[in-house]
Amino acid sequence: MSLSGEQLKALARQGAAQRYQELQDELAALTATFPELARGGGGKRRPSAAPKAANRRRRSMNAAQRKEVSERMTRYWAARRAEKADGGTAAGKAKSRRRKSAKKAAE
After folding, report:
1. Using alpha carbons only, what angle is made at residue 80 by residues 101 and 88, rounded to the nearest 5 degrees?
2. What is the pTM of this model?
């Protein structure tokens, strides 16, 4: 027994209407048991930390602060480039020695 598309839609609609009525009955029973649910209140709620974090704003920098950060980072990266050009620090030299010895061991 195969059903046509129209018959299938009619049965689906009928099943949906029945389920909708069941949910309405369940909702009525819940609101009769817990009247505060019908008013939209769930009773006393504990304050959560999430709203405080959501209201927190990041302070923006003014032009002078941005310029100061830019200059500081320019000096920082210039020092890093100079250090790299000089061969680095003792720790950097130790790393390069380890890499070379690891290459020799691999050969």
Report:
1. 30
2. 0.36
Give dist(CA 46, CA 34) in Å, integer.
19
Tell me the domain boundaries of the chain. 8-37
Integer Cα distance of 96 and 99 in angstroms? 5
How many helices (H) does the chain have, and how many strands (E)?
5, 0
What would the pLDDT profile of 50-88 be if each residue is shown by its tens digit? 666 667 788 899 999 999 999 999 999 999 999 999 886
Q: Are 36 and 42 in contact (CB under 8 A)?
A: yes
32-54: b or e for each residue (b if 16 or more CB lie within 10 Å)?
Answer: eeeeeeeeeeeeeeeeeeeeeee
Tell me, rounded to whole angstroms, the distance of Cα 16 from its chain centroid: 36
